[in-house]
Amino acid sequence: MSVKFERIIDDLIMRRKKLGITQLELAEMAELAQPAISRLESKRTVPQLDTLIKVADALGCELKVMPNGTK
Q1: pTM metric for this prediction
Q2: Which of 8, 12, 17, 36 sits a CA distance of 20 to 30 A from 48?
């Protein structure tokens, strides 16, 4: 998995924890199965874009495409 994916996932994990939401609660909010959230957070698989979007939306986040070299 690329460093960029890992950074996105780390940001989503921090947001979930900051909001005090469990993986199960997030899964329900994102209309995903809890094991999908667990796989995402453990970085065992490269997530599909639609999964990232659902999780980000459920957490009140936005995924943006940025030019190379910007953070």
Answers
A1: 0.86
A2: 17
